[in-house]
Write a structure and sequence with these properties.
The protein contains ten helices and two strands, in the order H-H-H-H-E-H-H-H-H-H-E-H. Strands 1-2 form a two-stranded antiparallel sheet.
């Protein structure tokens, strides 16, 4: 494969992602803020990747469908824990946020049918329910993005500019893809300046994008990245954010639009950045 073909595949995908995202947002608008709307929008990168593959004669096998070895799937699940749990623990320990949120406990007791269980048992059960039991349904959403960003774009970029540049460039594009939703108000936080939200989510996406690019290229599979993406969303958005008590400034530190996750994600991103995939790894 020569560089001209590789660049053509990249530019084809970038052009298509603009149109598929625009169309997806138009369709999703009909469903307002339902999960269907989220699914449609998050599937637009996959649609762009599939069309680009057909137009540039890229085999769909190159997306990376192998499942084994299981260690990479497990790593995809563990990695969000490594940057999210310490970040929230620091927020709670310093009093920047509280725990546990009584509303979360009440709803978890009803969902899990644990009316008389201790708070600790409810919290542990909710953690595993959200990050394991709900993992496969959550992956339906995350896979729509991962097929495009890590299944198509990262491997094609890596062929021409190397892993490090590919992980960084794909992360920049992935971050830019989120911006219209933030500016429109459909995606974001409340109580913090918009510029602050954009800065935090951009850095967060860049860091996690590097990590997931490494997972994809090191394992040769899209599934570890999809698992990491789904686990990240469930752990942070559905568990840690909701179990935290807002003390008035908590939103500046927690979630994808807060600052506390960034340094912990940076440590992992820096670690994998300095251990790039090599020729011995199965990258496709």
């Amino acid at each position: 494969m020569n560089a001209t073909n590789i660049n053509h595949r990249v530019t084809t995908y970038i052009a298509l992602i603009f149109f598929t995202t625009l169309a997806a947002n138009g369709i999703a608008f009909q469903f307002e803020e339902s999960p269907v709307a989220d699914l449609i929008i998050m599937s637009s990168p996959a649609l762009a990747a599939l069309i680009a593959s057909l137009l540039t004669r890229r085999s769909l096998k190159d997306i990376g469908w192998r499942v084994l070895p299981v260690k990479w799937l497990a790593l995809g699940w563990v990695l969000p824990m490594l940057y999210a749990l310490p970040a929230y623990a620091l927020v709670w320990f310093t009093g920047l946020g509280g725990i546990p949120n009584p509303t979360f406990l009440e709803r978890a007791r009803l969902t899990l049918n644990m009316p008389s269980a201790s708070d600790g048992m409810v919290i542990v059960s909710a953690f595993f329910y959200i990050t394991l039991v709900n993992l496969i349904p959550a992956m339906i959403f995350s896979l729509g993005e991962e097929i495009g960003w890590r299944g198509y774009l990262v491997p094609e970029l890596a062929k021409s500019v190397g892993f490090r540049n590919a992980s960084l460039l794909s992360g920049v594009l992935w971050a830019a893809w989120h911006l219209p939703g933030i500016f429109s108000g459909g995606y974001g936080s409340t109580g913090t300046p918009k510029i602050y939200q954009i800065a935090c989510i951009t850095l967060m996406v860049l860091m996690t994008g590097i990590i997931m690019a490494w997972l994809r290229m090191k394992s040769g599979s899209i599934w570890p990245a999809a698992i990491m993406h789904a686990t990240h969303n469930g752990l942070i958005q559905t568990f840690l954010d909701r179990i935290s008590i807002n003390t008035g400034i908590t939103q500046y530190f927690t979630g994808e639009f807060g600052v506390m996750l960034i340094p912990f994600a940076f440590i992992i991103a820096w670690y994998v950045w300095n251990r790039p995939p090599n020729a011995n790894d199965r990258q496709s």
